[in-house]
Amino acid sequence: MLIVMLTDRQCKILKLIVEKYIKDPIPVGSKVISKILNCSSATVRNEMSALEEAGLLEKTHTSSGRVPSESGYRYYVDHLMEPKKMTGEDMLKLQTVFHNQQLALSDVIMKSLQVISDMTNYTTVVLGSTSHENLLKQIEVIPYDEVSMIVIIVTDRGHVEHKNIRLQDVAMEDVKKTVNLINNLIVGTPIDEVSAKLEYEVKPIIGKYVKQHEQLYNAFYHVFSDFTNQEVNVVGKNKFLSQPEFSNVDKIRTVFNKLDSPELLRSIEEDNDNNIKVYIGSESNIDDDVTVIKTRFKNGNQEGTLAIIGPKRMEYDRVVSMLEYMRENIER
């Protein structure tokens, strides 16, 4: 953890530079700061040099101005950022979603994340929130060669997933028997409980009906396990394209590949702390120019993680307020 003792004036200068650079990604010069603080440019330059020596500011090669370093953003978030009340317009847009009694909780979460993505121009993510609401409606199997077939899972909410499986020396008749058994015993079960029900209700009896029962049971068990673990929804990934830090094709490709990785996104969910957490730059595990801000939520037996992902030059105070508002309304 960075421990730096700053004077009041240095704190004011760092805060001004961070907030100005967030609004407009142009290095901030001493003249701009000196006018706001009503002191000489020389004084501000000396203080900016001290902040640079402390590792909180960086000097770009294209300008005499300074930009916040990763440590500078961290110091700002931990010590200088002030709580920002949501604007009436932002709150009204989210209230419209939360007050819609026709929507299930999972739909409320997805629609509110879409609203936040549109308002902030950042990417939003929800992990692990909807499996309690999705009940298994049916499964179907479509063979496409001697050993490969597609398993189609349909939920009562119209959600459809498909998974390819390979079975060696298994008769299609046995596959049909397994599908019928699952449909008869497990339809109506919440998706996140299907794997347990397969183990305790299907596994003990499948051998009575099917010859290659171990191979078939394992194949379907893995299908449902994967489906349950796929609860990662990303909204507004293309918002990164409008951020100047991501104009480089290779850089945006790297970020998109990370956002397409369920394993990496699920790692956002790891801790169970309900406080809002901010991961800046290299802490994000996505890119040195990316920040992830996240929080956990719980509503009855449903819980998950909300995250907003954007440039390191993010409106931290606004995003924190939005996440707090979302969490409070979801839990209420």
Written overview of the protein:
The chain is of the alpha+beta class and 332 residues long. It has twelve helices and ten strands. The protein has helices at residues 8-23, 30-37, 41-53, 70-80, 88-98, 105-120, 172-186, 191-206, 213-229, 249-259, 262-267, 316-331; strands at 57-59, 66-68, 123-127, 136-143, 148-155, 160-166, 232-235, 277-280, 290-299, 302-311. A five-stranded antiparallel β-sheet has the order 7-3-10-9-8. Strands 4-5-6 form a three-stranded antiparallel β-sheet, covered by helices on one side. Strands 1-2 form a two-stranded antiparallel ribbon. A hairpin with a 6-residue loop joins strand 1 (57-59) and strand 2 (66-68). Helix 2 (30-37) crosses helix 3 (41-53). The longest helix has 17 residues, at 213-229. The mean pLDDT is 88.
Number of strands: 10
Distance between the termini: 35 Å
**Rg calculated over all Cα atoms:** 26 Å
Give the overall average pLDDT: 88
Number of helices: 12
Order of helices and strands: HHHEEHHHEEEEHHHEHHEEEH
- Strand percentage: 15-25%
Write out the strand line-up for the largest beta sheet, numbering strands in chain order. 7-3-10-9-8
Shape: elongated
Query: SS-based structural class?
Result: alpha+beta
Largest sheet: 5 strands, antiparallel
Low-confidence segments, given as residue ranges, are: none
Proportion of residues in helical segments: 40-55%
